[in-house]
Amino acid sequence: MKARIENPAMLLPDAVKAINLLYKAAHSAGVPGSTLELVHLRASQINGCSACVDAGARGARKAGETEERLFALAAWRETPYFTEAERAALALAEAGTRLADQSDPVPDEIWDEAARHFDDKQLAGLVLWLATTNFFNRINATTRQPAPQNWG
């Protein structure tokens, strides 16, 4: 697949500045980096963003994530590999990504379970990171940004 245009965020320098600030804010909220990696990868899987799935899996592996957990991520509910806090973050990520799938996109049960494991600052970081991930997924899908082909 060939991209329709270069990634729009790279064509507009002010966008890169804003994206870097969002990244920094989300990653400074106190949520474990591995949890943010899993949230990014799961949302990207749902959205079918090949570039973000590729980058997310590679980033998670580089951060120490195991193959076993990465292979099982799409079926996280049926596996024993994830902590209760990670499960809460993944449920929030799925609900926040699939907004049109139900009348109450993020039900209280999902939010309350996430709030059991994360304080308000961490929840803000999770939500901001999920929004940033979905932002990139939509840019990449719209412009058909491919996954890199020569990682070596």
UniProtKB/TrEMBL annotation:
Oxidoreductase is among the record's keywords: yes
InterPro entries xref list: AhpD-like, AhpD_core, CMD-like
Recorded GO MF terms: peroxiredoxin activity
Signal peptide (residue range): none
Keywords: Oxidoreductase, Peroxidase
Keyword Oxidoreductase attributed: yes
The Carboxymuconolactone decarboxylase-like domain, residue ranges: 13-95
PANTHER family for this protein: 4-CARBOXYMUCONOLACTONE DECARBOXYLASE FAMILY PROTEIN (AFU_ORTHOLOGUE AFUA_6G11590), BLL7811 PROTEIN
Protein known as: Alkylhydroperoxidase
Organism this protein belongs to: Micromonospora globispora
